[in-house]
Design goal:
Elements lengths: L2 H16 L6 E2 L4 H6 L5 E5 L3 H13 L4 E6 L4 E2 L4 H5 L7 H4 E2 L2 H7 L2 E4 L2 E5 L4 E4 L4 E3 L2 E4 L3 E3 L1 H4 L5 H10 L8 H11 L6 E4 L11 H16 L5 E4 L9 H12 L3 E4 L2 E7 L4 E6 L3 H6 L6 E6 L2 E4 L3 E3 L2 H4 L25 E3 L12 H19 L12 E13 L2 E12 L5 E6 L13 H19 L1
Parallel strand pairs: 2-3, 2-10, 3-6, 10-20, 12-13, 12-18, 13-14
Antiparallel strand pairs: 1-9, 4-5, 7-8, 8-9, 11-19, 15-16, 16-17, 21-22, 22-23
Helix pairs in contact: 1-6, 3-14, 10-11
The chain binds flavin-adenine dinucleotide.
């Protein structure tokens, strides 16, 4: 019997000892009846992603008397981080490496995993309604639902059918699952021709460096496979994006003849049948910012693969909870804490917060741990200072792979602090590594990227 198999049996033993049922799950009782039954120590977490799974484990680690239930609509976990390496055909990242089951950590840490979609939240009655697991009561509710796409505001003339068509033919792949698989298949099967990558045009969006890492990794694939084609980035940021100088240095050095970056564009249409994208290209920042379309050139471009990433907004779950949010749906926070500004029994973590910290998996882990401290203190009637440990150096460390052979990466670190404006804020630094020969990228940073990912998966799943 292999070591791996033996470990699995060991885990099954833990399962029997530690498994707990969800706080209260019912399909028949009325909401009011259910609410009465919450144990007083029931924490229900909406979303089993980076924030939610960290929270569940951390709460159980800190206080075994807390009953924790994670409600997640998907039945498999897939990672967005390092998915660009998979798209780009790097041998070090297979689909297997990106996917996990939700059961093992639930069994090991003794929290309950409920696979269902949350459709309503009643803060007065303190319960949530799910599609298949009835009504679940809570004492404290944690929201870690992530993002949603905002095609509607960005493309007001597109109807629902057009949006569905573009979303499926030109998958954004900022949310894991079919979108990544569809994009991967398209890239794998492409003929000579171009790949278009459209980063979100405006506003806060998930993982600011992601579209640019993807650009490098798809270019790597094109080079590796000898495809005659380019990766064309249709951006709005004129080169001023996350790790911008580091990306542009690497692109020029490694894929100068493959990557074409256009800094001031506006997407007008995508014809998915003809595989054509129509956009305006503005000559400079001023004409773009003024929206001076007379000065812009209209371009109709054929593509092989189009990765159109629309603007982001917060998942509708924050609206469902009827808590205070900003215009894009991100939760307004109670000072420097991860508590909602509206309700002392509702916490929000991950990308869904309105703190001025970057929406990343690493930030979600960092925030979930802080929020868990705050929740454990609240449940046990103890004080917690939300400014504790601030400023936090290197609270977010985010790597991007920029080269495939050899693997080389760049990085940014963020210090998070209590901003005088009353929210958490992050200040970034893009260092040049000691082994980089004066460049932003290095093999050592590439190795650190893999170590970071493995460490993160241990945080969520071990
Ligand atoms: C291509 C790409 C590369 C990235 N690279 C990095 C990186 O290198 N480093 C890094 O730190 N971060 C990276 N990120 C960012 C990272 O993936 C996100 O910031 C992180 O996943 C946010 O965690 P979260 O818990 O807020 O959301 P998620 O991890 O998205 O989890 C939200 C969960 O909520 C569930 N959910 C939503 N609504 C409901 C509902 N109604 N009922 C039940 N469940 C629901 C969803 O199914 C989902 O599983 C990358 C992202 C992308 C897209």
């Amino acid at each position: 019997m292999s070591m791996e198999r033996r470990d699995l049996f060991k885990l099954a033993g833990v399962a029997a000892a530690a498994a707990v049922l969800p706080a209260v799950v019912t399909t028949s009782a009325s909401a009011a009846e259910v609410a009465k039954k919450a144990s007083g120590k029931s924490v229900v977490i909406v979303g089993g992603g980076w924030g939610g799974l960290t929270m569940a484990k951390e709460l159980r680690k800190q206080d075994k008397s807390i009953e924790v239930t994670v409600v997640e609509k998907k039945d498999i976990f897939m990672s967005c981080p390092i998915s660009s390496l998979y798209l780009g055909g790097l041998e070090s990242v297979t689909l297997d490496k990106l996917t996990y089951d939700f059961y093992a950590p639930a069994v090991k840490h003794g929290y309950s995993f409920v696979q269902s979609e949350v459709t309503a939240i009643d803060r007065k009655a303190k319960n949530i309604t799910t599609t298949t697991a009835g009504v679940i009561a809570y004492d404290i509710l944690v929201l870690s639902p992530g993002i949603a796409y905002d095609y509607e505001t960005q493309f007001p003339t597109w109807d629902a059918a057009k949006i569905q068509n573009v979303a499926q033919a030109c998958p954004a792949a900022l949310m894991p699952g079919s979108e990544h698989l569809a994009l991967k298949r398209q890239i794998d099967n492409m003929d000579d021709g171009d790949v278009i990558i459209v980063p979100p045009a405006a506003g806060k969006y998930r993982c600011p460096p992601a579209p640019y890492e993807r650009t490098a990794m798809v270019a790597n694939f094109i080079k590796q496979e000898g495809i005659k084609g380019k990766v064309i980035v249709l951006d709005t940021r004129g080169g001023k994006f996350a790790k911008g100088a580091a990306f542009q240095e690497s692109w020029a050095d490694l894929f100068g003849d493959i990557i074409e970056y256009k800094g001031f564009t506006k997407i007008l249409d995508v014809d998915t049948a003809k595989k054509e994208i129509t956009y305006l290209e503005f000559p400079d920042a001023a004409t773009y910012e003024e929206g001076d379309e007379d000065e812009a050139k209209k371009v109709v471009k054929k593509y092989q693969v189009c990765n159109l990433i629309p603007n982001n907004k917060c998942s509708p779950v924050t609206k469902m909870a009827d808590i205070k949010t900003n215009g894009a749906g991100y939760a307004l926070m109670d000072g420097y804490s991860f508590r909602s500004a509206s309700d002392k029994n509702v916490y929000v973590i991950g990308d869904a917060v309105s703190h001025g910290i970057p929406p990343s998996g690493q930030t979600a882990i960092w925030g979930a741990k802080r929020a868990a401290n705050q929740i454990v203190a609240q449940i046990n009637g103890k004080a917690n200072d939300p400014k504790e440990g601030l400023p936090a150096k290197a609270a977010n460390v985010c790597y991007s792979m920029v080269g495939g052979s050899p693997e080389e990466a760049i990085m940014v670190t963020h210090e998070f602090s209590a901003d005088p404006s009353g929210v958490l804020n992050g200040a970034g630094n893009v260092p040049k590594p000691a082994d980089g020969n004066g460049k932003f990228r290095s093999k050592g940073t590439g190795k650190a990227l893999h170590e970071w990912f493995e460490g993160s998966m241990r945080e969520l799943f071990s």
